[in-house]
Design brief:
413 residues, Aspartate Aminotransferase, domain 1, binds pyridoxal-5'-phosphate, cysteine-S-conjugate beta-lyase activity, Aspartate Aminotransferase, domain 2, 12 strands, pyridoxal phosphate, EC 4.4.1.13, PyrdxlP-dep_Trfase, Cys_met_metab_PP
Amino acid sequence: MGHGRRHAKGTGPSGLTQKSKAPTKPDTQLITGGRSKTVTGPVVNPPVWRASTHLYENVAHLEASKNMPADAREFFYGRRGGPTQWALADALTEMEPGAAGTMLYPSGVAAISCALLAVLKPGDVLLMTDSAYDPSRSFAEGFLKRFGIETRYFDPMAGGEISAYFCYRTKAILLESPGSLTFEIQDIPAICAAAQAKGICTLLDNTWATPYFFTAIEKGVDISILAATKYIVGHSDVMAGTVTANKKYWNKVAQTARAMGQVLSPDDAYLAARGLRTMAVRLRQHEASAMKIAHWLNGRDEVIKVLHPAFPDCLGHAHWRRDFTGSSGLFSFVLNGSKAKAAALIDALQLFGIGYSWGGFESLALPVHPEKFRSAKPWTGGDALIRLQIGLEDCADLIADLENGFAAAKDIA
Ligand SMILES: *Cc1c(COP(=O)(O)O)cnc(C)c1O
């Protein structure tokens, strides 16, 4: 058989990679996930299995392959992925109790847009948290609107009262917790319970926490989305997105991704899977350093407020304590002053780069403007909001860098 599941001699059912799995904890799952189902030989890492074309043995074999389920782990044609992509997808599915499968995309935005297209049709209403990532909003306002899908925004703190926003046309809710830029933690279980009672699909952008800190499907979410570009990849060198769905929505998600021709290259899938193996240790270091720096910032006179889910005064902090097992390396703080003051501080930083994205090993600082992306719940928290991604550098060096930034900005109002 000309497919990718051949075992090297001496492995197979009795080989290490074929051992049946004992239930394991998240740290172990990150190491072993996706390994047993897509055996490509007696190796720890699935090789980069590059292929567009499957060569069939004869016409009968070709015809038989057409009856194979689209998500069978048998190589059919490159657009349906191969062993390298399956290993990554399976590892992510295994991280989410209650999940039926995971599709891969060439970016986080591709994952979000395809997931929404999987569950919406003309005439439907999408409810979106007012704290959503700005390209999610743009996709709704531009693309979805053009196809007759209306988007309405709601207060991220709505909780179970989300049902006040429902109408007979409401078909999906896009959640993001914590919210981009402003870090409100939503009451995901309450929102999902209200939605489920009305047959409304819930989708969550879970990029900040990843399933390592927040198991979305288990908490009631139907479709969990990651910009894998961030913590999964972890090294600022690959763009990737993932959508993990429960049983109810898995077929819709998978069929839509296939119809749209979504595929992640095997090289990028390999790098993402390699990133996943070290994600637990990276996340714990991001968490510890971010907490230290957030506390240091909180003690500065120039800082009005730190927006970090683990801080008691963060909106929705009680939900974070109840539902999450940790916090990652991204948070914001409000500087007492103007946008010019924030720019001067950021410009003076040497270790923090100025750039989009986050989740890599390097620290980044970005001036952010949530007031531009709000409608249901205007942002009134201050003009000079700075978002920090805390990388894996020594914390003392990062604090010294910030200290220089504050000094450089001190004479600016
Ligand atoms: C970066 C990001 C995305 C988009 O991911 P890309 O891979 O950059 O397309 C989606 N959601 C959130 C919260 C993000 O930070």
